[in-house]
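Just scan this pair:

***
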Amino acid sequence: MPSPFLSRLLAAAAPGRLDPKWALFSANSFIAAMLAIYFAFRLGLERPYWAMLTVYLTAQPFAGAVRSRAVYRFVGTLLGACAALALVPILVDQPALLSVAVTAWAGLCLYISLQDRTPRSYAFLLAGYTATTIAFSSVHVPAMVFVTALSRVEEILLGIGCATLVHTLLFPRDVTTPVLKSLCAASSDAFARTTDVLCARVDKAPNTGRWKLAADITQIEILSTHLRYDTAASKPDLRAIGAVQDQLALVLPMLLSVEDGLAALGERRSAELNHLLSELADWTRAPERSPATSDELIRKCTSFEATCCNDRSEWDRLIEAGTAARLATLIEALAAARNLSRALHSGAHPAIWSQAGLRDRHVRRRLHSDPGLAVLSVVALGVAVLGCCTVWITTAWPEGGVATQIAAIAAALYSSLDDPAPTLICSALWTLACLPIAAIYLFVIFPAITGFPMLVFSLAPTFLVIGYLQANPRHFIKALALGLGLISALDLQNKFSADFALFINSNAAAMIGLLTAFIAIRLLRSLSASGAAQRLLRHGWSDLARLAAARRPMSRARWTSIMLDRFGLVIPRLAGATTDIAVEARPLAALQIGLDLLALRQAAVHEDARSDPGLQQLLPMLSQAFRWLARGNAKLKPDDARALLAAIDNALCDTREDTTACQQRKLALIGLRRTMFPDAHALSRKAMP
């Protein structure tokens, strides 16, 4: 038995005591797998091991996640089976065309799946490589393609049914609790970060922990996708969770803008502003003990400009007024997030929904997607699959279909990573490591087994350890590769037969498929952390260029959601990259510029923008500047930078009316000037409106 090897793995996964949650997850997965293989034997399915394989692919820590994954996996399998049934009968006599058609389908499904970073993408991912599995398994017996497709659907349906049943009935872990805890933690973090800024306790050195809120918002969005499938007796309304996310999404950009305004003022801050900051800090530090309510503080912020001393320079007064306006929005967002979070925890129906108009809110948020990188992933998959197909067809390799199927699965499964190549190599190594274990089972243990109970007892030690490792995020990839490789190598059937030559050849073909996918991805698709960060930054500047050139202003919620998601992605990549780029400067600049640009466009809607030569000159120049930065340039050309600064100043000096729209426009222009040219001199009193 391979117990010493597995014991070392278990010790590496949990050097201290065993985690009961991981142990329960492993036990549930093993029970579900044994149920699936038992019913597959009784029903006489073609490949019983696929039912067991599906259990471990479907298993998730939370019961709601298992249910949602089961639904997406079944839908994807059904789509893939239909695609194979449509392609194989008409192209079986043309192997090259069949290979191209099936690969094209898999590539299309992969591209669609990469445009949706939520668990829903799993359905399209499955639709792609399920078609390759069924189609390439049916090449030698095309008349049996329907039977193969039906059997595959039955096996997967059995696997997901057993996984869902066991993980739902045996001590299920609901998704609602971690979602609510994450919302509470994100809200507390937002208050703590705000207190730090108001009290000037912000570190000067780059600190990615300061911006954890951006990643938390995206993680809550992804986790809440499973809520509609959750097992909790009382599930929170998705509109309410989305409302909290909307409010928290406003905190970070407003906080950055306030921090920039305070830094620009330095020691020139007025006594009135310092007093206001002190009151706000008292509230954010302990809202329930603060003598002032959030509504009172918001009124003080909105009326700050009227109470500000008139002996200050016009530039300082404008920066203070802009900072106070941002503080009002910040406090309003914090208060709304706090009230909604408390209402969600208590199960009450918050009145703030109707006040904020959140009943009509569209639940789905906009997340970052990269069509260009998705195309590269599709190309890598195509090269890997068609390369295996070419060798298979030209050499009449008996196990060529196995290599092609594994290449398609491997190239698709890890395509969402920046650089899937290291993960593929890890999977290949752990798949190779499982082969001695499989050989011991096939040629030593299984010949002595006389019934299903003995089979269960013999498999239990190995798969309980693998399931425990799979529950540990640190060892998930290696455990999954070990488990899936072992299940495939065992190829459990109703009647036991062990063919050593077949064992060697089929597993060698699987390894060749993995290595082919690795080579294709390494050559065509790999990105370093620095390269991925640079690509994300260029996307931000490209979006700003389109935003400046757009005829209609984009929704602030839409822009904030996608930029915060991108921000949460880029910060850890920049932190781990060996690059000279400041960890914070670029993503923060794009976030702040976008919000100021949206405010500028929104203010222009209330005016006749066509009659404003300053704005007409500024917007094309901004779009051109952002396109230049989107090409990967570190900064603007000196002449272009001077021209753009002059255009912003001209637009600012042309804003002389005292309407609300003009004030919004003025604050937006000041924000653009401060973010894009932080070291530029302040406008003189003569130049100011």
Remarks:
- The longest helix spans residues 314-346.
- Residues 428 and 679 are 52 Å apart (CA to CA).
- Residues 350-363, 577-585, 685-689 have pLDDT under 50 and may be disordered.
